[in-house]
Structures are given as C-alpha cells and as structure tokens.
Design brief:
By secondary structure, this protein is of the alpha+beta class. It has a single domain, classed as Jelly Rolls. It is built from two helices and ten strands, in the order αββββββββββα. The strands form two sheets. It has a five-stranded mixed β-sheet, with no helix packed on it. It has a five-stranded antiparallel β-sheet with strand order 2-10-4-8-7, with no helix packed on it. The longest helix is centred in the C-terminal third of the chain and has 20 residues.
Length: about 180
C-alpha cells in the first residue's frame, strides 16, 4: 500500500508544471507603454499568468508574446496562450476562473529566424481582474517577453437605433408641416 501511495505521488509530481510564475501589470487598463512583461520559465513544463485589471465596461484587448532562441532545441514546445477571467472572487488561477479566448498555439515568426510568437485579440466585457496564461515546455534557456494592450470600446450612442430613427422621422415630418403652414 505504501509503495502504491509513493508511486502515485511521484507520478502526480511529474505531471505538474515545474514552473509557475505570476507577473502583475500594476497599472489598470494597460497600454502598449505600461503592459510589458518578461518571464523565464527555464527547463520543463510551465504555466505562467500575466495579471491585469480593467476598469472599463467594454475593452478591446491585444496580448502577444515572443520567444527568440539561439538554436531550435532552445524553443518552447507546445507553447500556447489564453485569456482568463478571474471569476467572482477575483482570485487568479482557482476553481471559479473561466476562459475568454484561446488557447492559441504559437507559430514561427515570419521574418526572424529562431523565433516564435503567440497572441490574439478580442473584446472583454466588464471590469475586473483578468490574466493571460502561457503554458508550454521550456528548455534550459527558455524565456519570453510580451505586451498586453487595452483600449476602451465606446458604449452605445444615445438616440441610436430604432428609437433614434423614429424620432428623426417625427422631426422631419414636423419640419415639413411647419413649412407647409408658413
């Protein structure tokens, strides 16, 4: 029984990420200037979170990361990224978190040799704490850097839509009626 327990624990330890880092972007609603990050997972599996907060009702978000390596054996394998909402408790990486975008797999950079990039964009509705999660298996020299940039999406314009059209038609009709009486 003891042997079974020890072998189960060893198998569980091997299946967990060797490295898990959290990087906090301290400025709310990060921009291309304030949303930079860099992480060095090293060798083995990793699961890193880059945490950011949003204060706007609707935000267009762009997240990307690049890994440049000396030789092909140094690249990050199975590298992917996704954007998560930290849920009602606003605590990162626990049971009530839910995925918003992804996972998106890394691809080779178009121009730069020995380079891979992962990223994506989308609209996040609602304020709160969010995070980009990067997972993969690094080699001894693996590292990556990236940026999370956000821009508020304007809300609906007052008077737009069907009520605005009805009001515009009524005003045009009223103007015609006044011209005819004058």
């Amino acid at each position: 029984m003891r042997r079974l327990l020890l072998s189960t624990l060893a198998l569980l330890a091997l299946s967990l990420p060797a490295h898990a880092a959290q990087f906090n972007i301290l400025t709310p609603d990060p921009t291309s200037v304030t949303g930079n990050f860099a992480l060095t997972p090293g060798a083995g599996p990793f699961e890193d979170q880059v945490i950011f907060s949003l204060t706007q009702a609707s935000t267009f978000t762009i997240a990307n990361a690049t890994n440049t390596f000396a030789a092909p054996p140094d690249q990050i394998t199975n590298w992917q990224a996704s954007i998560w909402d930290s849920g009602l408790d606003q605590v990162v990486n626990n049971a009530d978190d839910f995925i918003l975008f992804g996972p998106q797999a890394a691809t080779a950079c178009i121009v730069t040799p020995n380079c891979q990039i992962v990223g994506g964009s989308g609209i996040i509705n609602g304020a709160g704490i969010f995070y980009a999660e990067f997972t993969g298996t690094g080699s001894g020299t693996s590292g990556y850097a990236g940026n999370i940039s956000t821009q508020a999406v304007p809300g609906p314009i007052v008077g737009a839509g069907i009520p605005g059209i009805i009001a515009a038609i009524a005003l045009i009709g009223l103007a015609r009626r006044r011209r005819q009486t004058a």
